[in-house]
Amino acid sequence: MTETAPSREKLESRARNVLLFQLSKGAKSKSQLRAILVKREIPEDIFEPVLDRFEEAGLIDDAQFANVIVNSRRRYKGLSKSAIKRELSTKGVAVEVIEEAISEITSEQEFETAKELAVKRLRTMSRLEPAVQDRRLSGYLARKGYGGGIVYAAIRYAREQAVKSEA
């Protein structure tokens, strides 16, 4: 008994089901969904038209996806513009879509976020030596994607706030 290859209709149906399941778990970029379909061994000539139909129907929208990532990463993780840009890039979002999504973030907003993070984190380090605090704070902010100038200014600001609250 030989096994026959699945029909085109069955493969299209499988591609649709995989996409619907993935999208029900959370937003994904078109590139991420394409990679999942490749991993599921669905032929490209089958899944590309299905991906395009999902995009036309508004179920896949990289611009909207990028905006959601920008807002959530800034609000909940305090990530910098560069860290968000890197994350979106690894998710396969086009450069022009990324630039549009992060264009709303001003350098003032970045600095304010870095200051808030530094003040909050410094409060948890009161028992450590100042040099250790600085080292840990700078590492923490650097991992969030902030550059050296912003990091040191945010630490200086956090120190000033700590002195004010002690007085």
Written description of the protein model:
The chain is elongated. It contains 9 helices and no strands. With 167 residues, the chain is mainly alpha-helical. The protein is 75% helix and 0% strand.
- Contiguous low-pLDDT stretches (5 residues minimum) are none
Overall average pLDDT: 93
Envelope shape = elongated
The radius of gyration computed from the alpha-carbon positions, rounded to a whole number of angstroms, is 23 Å
The largest sheet is:
none
Strand content: under 5%
Helix content: over 70%
Number of helices: 9
How many strands appear in the DSSP assignment?
A: 0
Structural class: mainly alpha
| Alpha-carbon distance between the two ends | 85 Å
Order of helices and strands: HHHHHHHHH
What's a concise summary of this model?
The protein has 167 residues and is mainly α. The protein has helices at residues 8-25, 30-39, 44-56, 62-77, 81-90, 95-102, 107-123, 130-143, 148-166. Helix 5 (81-90) runs antiparallel to helix 6.
Keywords:
single chain; 167 residues; mainly alpha; 9 helices; 75% helix
Set out the fold topology.
Blueprint (H helix, E strand, L loop, with lengths): L7 H18 L4 H10 L4 H13 L5 H16 L3 H10 L4 H8 L4 H17 L6 H14 L4 H19 L1
Helix pairs in contact: 1-3, 2-3, 4-6, 5-6, 7-9, 8-9
